[in-house]
Design brief:
Chain lengths: ~180, ~300
């Protein structure tokens, strides 16, 4: 299995700062904004963004939630391996708030479709935006596009984009994993 | 993620520890779901479930129905009292007729032991046993253990006494299997006439003195005396039963620890439990009911996951 590095630690750091600045540009002090990490992998990115926003840009009291979409997926029973659920943690009202979904890789758009349904169980947000670290172009099954994106990549279908965080890997890294030919 | 090792839920006897842990972990997520403003997920919107109740039930039937609705399944309900069973239709015929309506899962309560196993062998649908005679009531045992785990942190190593009519109780048998599997110690307490002869071969002990049993245990699961299943008298009078095996506030207060009180319902207040005990802080009876919905959602969800559409 071949592995090619797409982004290294430093590039990820710069991108996180840029995304944080773009969020500040649109949401100012975040008083009416809720960030939602999509379980399981979007949560790492969401945590990291909140860290950058608080430590480097002194934004206070950011509301951060986690949303699990397992029970809303449309491929339930169409997969070989069963889906495992993660926890949902949204301790505030999302009614009339600006919600930003945060996920690591945007591929088919189906997870985000499920998240759009899932968030309705917590109220009616004023609007919903999407932030992703990696946007895989030309691979969408649904008309869903990100509002904020770290890097756009073109990869063929068999290849996999893997985001590694230093929380559970040696260092931050984004790589493209391609199967052996 | 692991799969259930079984393709039907017929009894706890067929489950292993991983199955129970998988059901509990899934139920944790569903418990969060049923406490949301909108308590529904769309997972099972293409699944149809038939609830076949050949015996009276309030709690279990409502709990299953609610669990199925929370998962967005389509439901048809059937009660023997208003059906063709009264006209002499056999169990397989009834089930097959319902299956022709393209049903994926059958939840069944039946007065005969093994009815679920029989159905699982003969028809092509997932079967969930909601109580078969005096045999098993697996979802009740699962929700009981789930409630103990929630209250005390873990089931392993806990001492549980099951008080009352063990002989006629499917809840007792399923609970014994479930608790033993999870590493709890189990003691039975009740009139000797209502304790099956060879029950201790399941690795449980017997104590005829209620006070001693309560002093020993962390949890007391109190059962109802099932008069409707008794063809002969097993004890002289209800008054005598209450005096020997009824739990009241004075008895509980005289014991030097906080025992958790459970009851699968329906309670005969003043017989096995007095009202002040049933409504006390030590009682987790209403938590059991809430957990019942989450557990049944988990069981149905995990079984539905095995259904393949071509």
């Amino acid at each position: 299995m071949a592995k090619k590095t797409l982004l290294n630690e430093k590039e990820i750091y710069i991108i996180l700062n840029r995304l944080a600045c773009q969020l500040i540009e649109n949401h100012q002090d975040f008083s009416n904004t809720i960030l939602i990490g999509i379980q399981p992998r979007g949560v790492y990115l969401a945590d990291r963004l909140v860290q950058v926003l608080t430590e480097e840009y002194q934004v206070k009291d950011i509301k951060l939630g986690k949303l699990d979409i397992t029970f809303y997926r449309d491929d339930f029973r169409r997969r070989e391996d069963p889906l495992s659920a993660s926890s949902t943690d949204i301790n505030f009202i999302v009614d009339n708030k600006n919600v930003v979904f945060i996920d690591d890789v945007l591929f088919s758009g189906r997870s985000i479709r499920a998240a759009l349904t899932a968030i309705q169980a917590f109220g009616r947000p004023k609007n919903i935006e999407l932030l992703v670290l990696i946007d895989r172009r030309f691979s969408r099954h649904l008309p869903i596009q990100p509002d904020y994106k770290g890097r756009q990549v073109d990869v063929i279908k068999d290849e996999q984009v893997k985001v590694e965080w230093k929380e559970n890997e040696p260092r931050d890294k984004v790589c493209i994993v391609s199967p052996d030919v | 993620m692991a799969k259930l090792s079984v393709s039907h839920l017929l009894g706890i006897k067929h489950l292993n520890l991983e199955d129970i842990n998988l059901i509990f972990n899934t139920a944790d997520h569903f418990k969060e779901v049923i406490n949301r403003p909108i308590k529904k997920v769309p997972s099972l919107r293409d699944i149809t479930i038939a609830n076949l109740f050949f015996e009276n039930s309030t709690r279990t039937k409502l709990s299953f129905e609610l669990a199925e609705k929370r998962l967005s399944a389509d439901i048809i309900n059937f009660s023997a009292a208003q059906s063709s069973v009264k006209k002499g239709e056999s169990l397989i015929d009834t089930a097959n007729n319902i299956l022709s309506m393209k049903v994926d899962i059958i939840v069944m309560r039946h007065p005969n032991e093994g009815a679920g196993d029989f159905l699982a062998k003969h028809i092509d649908a997932k079967i969930v046993n909601a109580g078969d005679g005096a045999h098993e009531h697996p979802t009740q045992a699962l929700l009981d253990s789930f409630s103990i785990r929630e209250k005390l942190g873990d089931v392993k190593g806990k001492k549980v006494v099951i008080v009352g009519d063990i002989k006629h109780s499917r809840v007792a048998l399923s609970n014994i299997y479930a608790l033993k599997l999870q590493g709890a110690e189990v003691k039975l307490c009740g009139p000797t006439t209502l304790i099956p002869k060879f029950i201790t071969t399941l690795g449980v002990s017997y104590e005829k003195d209620l006070r001693k049993a309560l002093e020993w245990c962390d949890v007391a699961n109190v059962l109802r005396v099932q008069h409707e299943r008794m063809d002969v008298k097993y004890f002289p009078s209800i008054r005598e039963y209450t005096q020997l095996f009824g739990i009241n506030k004075e008895l509980l207060d005289s014991i030097d620890k906080d025992i958790v009180i459970m009851h699968p319902g329906p309670i005969n207040r003043g017989v096995e439990l007095t009202s002040d005990v049933a409504d006390s802080k030590q009682s987790i009876i209403l938590n059991q009911v809430e957990n019942g919905v989450a557990i049944r959602m988990a069981v149905i969800y995990l079984l539905a996951q095995q259904i393949k559409r071509d």
